[in-house]
Design goal:
- The protein is mainly alpha-helical.
- The protein has a domain of about 70 residues: dinb family like domain (Four Helix Bundle (Hemerythrin (Met), subunit A), Up-down Bundle), CATH 1.20.120.
- Helices cover about 65% and strands about 5% of the residues.
- The protein is built from six helices and two strands; from the N terminus they run αααααββα.
- Strands 1-2 form a two-stranded antiparallel ribbon.
- The protein is elongated and about 55 Å long.
- The N and C termini lie far apart (about 50 Å).
């Protein structure tokens, strides 16, 4: 499955992408919100860690169980009740990197037929292990783009103010 091999490479590179985008960010920049109700870089990093841990569990379920149905989670409730606004981005980056590496090491040696294993996502419905890989690969990339946009907005606001 060549597309799965490419997805695995992108999945593995997720932490590198985030680390590169966070280089040089500090202080108020981590807490800058581009608009009311939008998450800051600090909150995005905390969300990425919790999502990655949820994903690690889901990958394991999809490999070990027959057609598991994943539990849903309320990301906004987690952000509020787990106090994402106070989490340290450096700790989040370290945890994200470790969890992603461990999951990659689990996924990399899987045989081609394993990628067809079915599972059920609470919002997306029926999918395969390959689809789950695509979902988590793109999730980190989407938030990386969001972080880049926040950093640009922060620089623009700082130079305008």
């Amino acid at each position: 499955m060549p597309e799965t091999a490419e997805q695995l490479i992108r999945f593995r590179r997720g932490p590198e992408l985030l680390a590169a985008l966070l280089t040089g960010a500090a202080g108020r920049e981590f807490d800058f919100s581009p608009a009311p109700g939008k998450w800051s870089i600090r909150q995005i990093m905390a969300h990425l860690v919790d999502s990655e841990m949820m994903g690690a569990s889901r990958f394991r379920q999809a490999i070990a169980e027959d057609n598991p149905a994943f539990a849903g989670w309320d990301q906004d409730a987690w952000a509020e009740r787990l106090d994402y606004a106070r989490r340290k981005p450096s700790d989040c980056m370290e945890t994200f990197r470790r969890v992603r590496r461990e999951t990659f090491e689990l996924l990399e040696p899987l045989p081609a037929e394993a990628w067809l294993r079915p599972c059920t996502h609470p919002r997306r419905g029926a999918m395969t292990l390959a689809g789950l890989l695509e979902l988590y690969t793109e999730h980190a990339e989407k938030h990386a783009s969001q972080i880049m946009a926040i950093r640009e907005a922060y620089r623009a606001a700082k130079s305008a103010g």
